Amino acid sequence: MSLQEQIESLKSTWGVVMAAVAAGPLALWTSDLHPPWPSSSAMVATTACAAAIWFSFSIQSLVDRPNVLKFFGTVSLAIGLILGVYYFSAFGRYVVSIEVPSQDGTTVQTPIVVGSEPRPGITMSNNTTRDLLLDNQLIAERIWTEESIRSAKETLLALFVSCFFFLTLGATIVTLSQRH
Amino acid sequence: MTIHVCSASSIKPTKSARNAYICFALFSVVWTLLAGCATKEPLRERFQAESGAVVELPGEGSPDFDRNAGEVTSQIRQLDTAIKDWQRKSTHMDPALASEILRILRESRDAAVQDIALAYRIPQQTSGPIDNGLIALARNSVAHLLETTKSPTTGFKFEVSTVITSKNSAAIHYVPLGEFERSSSPDWQSYTKGQLLRIGRYMFRVQPADRSRRAFTQKLEILREPSEHELVPRGM
Fold first, then answer.
1. Which of A47, A102, B128, B226 is the most exposed place for a label (fewest CB within 10 A)?
2. Which chain B residue's Cα is nearest to A130?
3. Across the A/B interface, how many CB contacts are shorter than 8 Å?
């Protein structure tokens, strides 16, 4: 399929649907549900979505049978949904929002990524994560090991990016299989 | 008997031989790169100061290497990366403010390097042991600088101004609550009115000017800007 045809395809109603899927990361970004690290995580995921759309056109040019395409698309969608569930589960586990003052005098919810392995001497019992963070001046590295915090950040980013990659890939392939 | 002699220029490599040469050349390049990566770290670590001066410190494997000092030098390497990250993220800040913060970060980092260098010089030039006090000083300084670089450079305030007072003129000290609960001898810091404190919970200790009266402690949560509290002993 030529570039011109790909653009024509994106102009169709299904193209709008695909664009909506690709806009998913940006939607989560506006609702503060994107990974706090790195600060450009929504842009990283959107780039992955664009790569998934390009990749799906490549798959379409290799596979002639619509049924096979549809199968690939459905499997990708299912993988994307499962990764999405894992992402929100990890987000609930590793991200704590604390209200802090902003420069303009209002207060804003600031997300902080926490780890899973406490440092020696830190007791987690009877303490909520928020309490522990406040007792340690919101410095997660004082409570959890740096390795576990880094691992949490990387897990969140990997799940977020791969979730939207597979969702976009699946939606695009299913769309293209119907146009076959 | 006939002997055929051919000149070197007439010998041309076949296609498979040429492929073999290319493979060998590629293999050599890859091998050289891998070998380069696998070579041992130098015995001396070099740190460049803001002024351009280079400070050399003993690296791992060096006979005068000290493990505690080595830990601090590795933290200084982390700090260098953190300062670069901070600089990249601070583009939207007021340039004068960002440049001032950056200057302080770099100067403090250079001072920590100098502390380590001095700690190493003492056993080299005297018969005494390495100065662990200087190493501890550098360690605390680098830890504080690392925390500073972790504060978001966006519109959030992680440090708020505070007005903590007591009923009578008294010396006020504070310590993060987490440290107070963990440590048997917490490092109490002296408090001055209007001081910036990082958001969180603290244990404050008030020592009345009249020494015959007992000191008392109180937990405080610092969240808002500015944070105002009056410390009052229980029962008053």
1. B128
2. B200
3. 62
